[in-house]
Amino acid sequence: MSRTAVFFHAHPDDEALLTAGTMAMLAAEGHRVVLVVATAGERGLADLPHGDELGQARMKELHRSAETLGCARVVLLGYGDSGLAIDGGVAEDRPDNAFIDADTEEAAQRLAAILKEETADLLTIYDPAGGYGHPDHVQVYRVGSRAAEIAGTPIVLEATVNRDPLLKGVRLAARFYPKIDVRSFESAYSPNHVITHRVNVRKYARAKRASMAAHASQTTGGDGDRTLGAMLKIPFWAYRLIFGTEWYVRRDLPPGTRVRHPFH
């Protein structure tokens, strides 16, 4: 039976990093996949200047990514990218329509209207900390949680990363790269014991990699190669192994639950 899954993200490229494998898998299985993005990511680091030029470029990249993954529909909510302060908090120079400043109820009603229109069976958001703490990611959690309540969407999954192996890897890397801030990862994403869904997406690794590659503007910027660019340099055999699992938390399931498919 075909179902509909709505993936709600803060910026273009977030879908590639956290949920692309799952999206490609569901589309391949015949389900309807809808991608909703809160902002155009116009304040992200890139070689292009901030503003309309970068936002337009990133939206084109988003549509290329969505096509690669088999999405049936892409929706931009049209909020401004809130940006990120140097200390990781909310940027003071954010635009007037910044997503972080949007009325949660009003934004949730807008997303709920899409969920109702699509008769969505599933909605993905982020964990309460917004993964690594970006203000727009935290707002995705707030808005998405409320929208699911309004629309009566039965399955809500928090897209995340398993913090335990991530932290081990960061601590190892810090031995060789002392500038890495290990403490910032100690509260990022979700610990293994709260994760309910471990989705094997190795079969869709090429689609996930193509989704990442679609976001070319985000591979460089700032001090040079960024996380996305570094990921794309990993040999495919290793990429498939490292990025072959996507993690989610479903709060209405008992602790310790282990599920391998989003609709289970």
From TrEMBL:
The keyword Calcium is assigned to this record: no
GO molecular function: hydrolase activity
Presence of the UniProt keyword Zinc in the record: yes
Residues forming coiled coils: none
EC main group: hydrolase
Pfam families given in the database record: PIG-L
EC number from the UniProt entry: 3.5.1.-
Keyword entries, A-Z: Hydrolase, Zinc
Protein name: PIG-L deacetylase family protein
